[in-house]
Amino acid sequence: MELTHILAFNLALFAAMISPGPAFLVVVQNTLSSGRRAGSATGFGLACVAALWTTAALLGLDVVFTLFPWAYVVVKTIGALYLLYVAYATWQSACKPVVDHAKPMHHAFRQGLMVNALNPKSVLFAAAVLVVIFPSNMSLLENGFIIANHLILEIIFYTALAFFMSRPAVSKGYLAAKLYIDRCSAVALGLLGGRLLIGK
Description:
Layout: H1 3-18, H2 22-34, H3 36-59, H4 61-67, H5 69-93, H6 105-117, H7 121-133, H8 140-165, H9 168-176, H10 178-198
Helix pairs in contact: 1-8, 2-3, 2-6, 2-8, 3-6, 3-7, 3-8, 4-5, 5-10
């Protein structure tokens, strides 16, 4: 394994993280509604499970999903239903006033865990990236480094995202357009959940 492999891996992860998927949207939503600490806690939960998915990919869990398609379908269905639930809750709360620190950090962390834990496409993505970028037969130390690198990169990204989204100008703009932002976020999460539910 060389430095260029790690750089390529990090670029692929960064491209995936900045795409408007459920992880990105949940961090933004929690930061805007409950503050920087809640957003960072959500990101930490996402990062922990993302690193676990990379570990699973290194151990060959993607092979298990290939051999037992029903397992993939079960996890995917549960994940899709959870995203639809989050979308519904976000839509329902759009008209409610914002209460400071409305979501405790442990709830935000748990939500981050759930969003990534119930998305089996994460392990398939990680497996595809690992196969394309890294050489085969890597050592245990090299595998551990890849996992730690993934965890640290996600924590840094989501912490920076929460910091940016919690800036006064951004928060003020959110409060002024809360109804529309929350409803758009709910629709986006609902569409992602629906796509996960009916997609291959």
